[in-house]
């Protein structure tokens, strides 16, 4: 149960990183990635996965 | 007393929240109607505290834009809304031009770059953060980190930021704390019905909102943020993107709304739309306005919140005087190679003193030239537009073929004023003039009666004359406004004798592909 970033579409804006309540997102080698071990899909924290809600490229999707 | 009256016209007395620094003023007349209360006039009709803030700021003072340079650092890539004229692969198009990619910097890299540029360019007076996303998205983390360091390292530089306003109310206290005394908010509508056609969604309070809800929240946050800033005495410039068929006439409402909340300047910019940018508007054939359509809306708003017409829609990493961009000289690699740069404000200080001295004389000579025209030309002659090739300093000091933009002045019995600028391709890039480029230049200034240049070749001169635009080099290196008035006096005589004809009714093309120029 985790989200992932489709890196080909990512604009590397970092908006998702700032919103993730679990610090699951970080910049690795010039692109943002989600650590599946930390991602909870925001369940119990927010109504919807925060990264997907803020992403301008709509590239945060269920893994 | 005159001070109070003109403050009215500058600020627009807030029905809601007048700026804290403003004295209680009577329900005075809506102020003067001519350009005589323009921002360029200085202390005589402006609150000295406000003048202090704007006089060296190229974006806030039309006069300062001839003398002072700004620099944008692109430290804020994230955004919290989606605009239909924006493609997030590129810079935010609220402040910048669509289809442009800025070099993103970390706050540390930004500081280094700023210190290096400040050392090279003594005209530098302002550091702004305008993206490439929204400067307050992602909690404004990089924006404030940059300002924090800057305030300590280079306290003589003014700080400003631009935002879409959504997160603004949360950050007003921080903004005040960092002594940021200029903020730009992009406000394209005050009616959610209009907003829904511009913004497909926003991200607010941990949720993505769409449609009318999104536009309504954005509108409320923008108005609240604006009021909070002006009530703290922070100067606010409002940018609006004019989108024909969507918000063109509505911008009059926007102008009233922002004036009543104390906005200092209103900057109406043309939508720049091109399918190649991959924006919603670009792909759906939404066009931008022509030069005259833009001017009609700008003129209709005159008398409301003070208009800004010299905005260049610069890149989020622009460096230099408005209309020029020296960013290429200061890429991250080049800065890295420069090593440590020490802070030293000596050159900037003496440059500012020089401008201060020049200013005083200029105000007097403009007034004299204006009086001369008023006395000798009747009020019946319609104003004309003049295109000017200039490199800055309020002088006609650029060769026709080297101009990357022309500044447009409107001159008439009421005086001369700057009303805009038109970007063009350099006609003689590389030495020889080329016919296609010349056609582009002609289209860009087709509504002008004359073009003032420091020098011009025989060929372009002939083509201009054939197109009905008079090339004028007799004012080379003189001041723009005085020359424009002298020309107008002469033009009125020739019009009277029937030797020239009015060019009223001509329109011109606003270039879409052009970016703020990079130096070769
Ligand atoms: S779904 Fe939630 S927890 Fe997972 S990465 Fe996105 S924001 Fe973080
Ligand atoms: S918000 Fe989307 S585009 Fe921006 S860094 Fe995250 S995944 Fe990439
Ligand atoms: S974008 Fe407009 S406001 Fe910003 S620096 Fe350029 S001219 Fe000034």
UniProtKB/TrEMBL annotation, chain A:
Annotated 4Fe-4S ferredoxin-type domain residues: 1-30
Cofactor: [4Fe-4S] cluster
Entries under PROSITE patterns matching the protein: 4FE4S_FER_1 (PS00198), 4FE4S_FER_2 (PS51379)
GO molecular function, one term: metal ion binding
Matching Pfam families: Fer4_7
Keywords in alphabetical order: 4Fe-4S, Electron transport, Iron, Iron-sulfur, Metal-binding, Transport
Protein known as: Ferredoxin
């Amino acid at each position: 149960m985790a989200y992932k970033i489709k890196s080909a579409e990512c604009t590397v804006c970092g908006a998702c990183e700032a919103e993730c309540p679990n610090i699951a997102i970080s910049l690795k080698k010039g692109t943002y990635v989600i650590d599946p071990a930390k991602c909870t899909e925001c369940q119990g924290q927010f109504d919807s996965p925060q990264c997907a809600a803020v992403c301008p490229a709509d590239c945060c999707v269920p893994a | 007393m005159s001070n109070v009256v003109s403050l009215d016209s500058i600020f627009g007395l807030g029905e809601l929240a007048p700026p804290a620094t403003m004295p209680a003023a009577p329900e005075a007349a809506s102020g003067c109607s001519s350009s005589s209360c323009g921002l360029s006039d200085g202390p005589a009709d402006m609150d000295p505290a406000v003048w202090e803030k704007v006089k060296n700021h190229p974006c806030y003072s039309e006069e300062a834009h001839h003398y002072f340079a700004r620099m944008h650092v692109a430290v804020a890539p994230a955004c919290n809304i989606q605009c239909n004229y924006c493609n997030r692969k590129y810079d935010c198009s609220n402040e910048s031009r669509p289809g442009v990619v800025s070099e993103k910097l970390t706050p540390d890299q930004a500081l280094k770059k700023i210190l290096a540029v400040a050392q090279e360019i003594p005209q530098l007076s302002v550091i702004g953060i305008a993206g490439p996303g929204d400067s307050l998205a992602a909690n404004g983390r990089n924006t404030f980190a940059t300002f924090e360091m800057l305030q300590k390292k280079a306290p003589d530089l003014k700080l400003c930021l631009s935002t879409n306003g959504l997160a603004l109310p949360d950050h007003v206290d921080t903004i005040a704390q960092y002594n940021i005394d200029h903020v730009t908010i992009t406000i394209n509508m005050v009616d959610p019905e209009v907003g829904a056609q511009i913004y497909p969604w926003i991200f607010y309070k941990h949720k993505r909102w769409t449609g009318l809800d999104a536009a309504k929240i954005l509108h409320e946050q923008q108005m609240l943020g604006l009021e909070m800033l002006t009530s703290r005495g922070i100067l606010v410039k409002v940018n609006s993107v004019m989108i024909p068929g969507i918000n063109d006439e509505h911008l009059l409402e926007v102008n009233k709304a922002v004036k009543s909340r104390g906005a200092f300047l209103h900057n109406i910019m043309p939508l720049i739309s091109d399918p190649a940018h991959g924006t919603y508007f670009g792909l759906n054939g939404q066009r931008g306005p022509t030069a005259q359509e833009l001017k009609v809306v700008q003129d209709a708003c005159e008398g409301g919140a003070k208009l800004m017409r010299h905005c260049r829609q610069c890149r989020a990493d622009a460096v230099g005087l408005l209309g020029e961009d020296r960013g290429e000289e200061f890429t991250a690699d080049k800065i890295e190679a420069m090593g440590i740069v020490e802070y030293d404000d000596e050159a900037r200080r003496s440059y500012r003193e020089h401008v201060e001295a020049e200013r005083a004389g200029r105000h007097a000579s403009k007034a004299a030239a204006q009086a001369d025209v008023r006395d000798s030309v009747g009020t019946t002659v319609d104003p004309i537009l003049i295109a000017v090739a200039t490199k800055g300093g309020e002088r006609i000091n650029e060769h026709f073929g080297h101009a990357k933009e022309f500044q447009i002045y409107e001159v008439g019995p009421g005086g001369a004023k700057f009303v805009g600028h038109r970007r063009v391709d350099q006609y003689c890039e590389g030495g020889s003039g080329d016919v296609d480029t010349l056609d582009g230049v002609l289209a860009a200034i087709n509504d002008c009666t004359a073009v003032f240049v420091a020098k011009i070749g025989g060929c372009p001169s002939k083509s201009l004359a054939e197109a009905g635009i008079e090339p004028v080099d007799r004012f080379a290196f003189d001041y723009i406004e005085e020359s424009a008035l002298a020309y107008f006096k002469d033009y009125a005589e020739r019009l009277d004798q029937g030797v020239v004809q009015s060019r009223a009714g001509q329109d011109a093309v606003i270039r879409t592909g052009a970016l703020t120029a990079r130096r070769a």
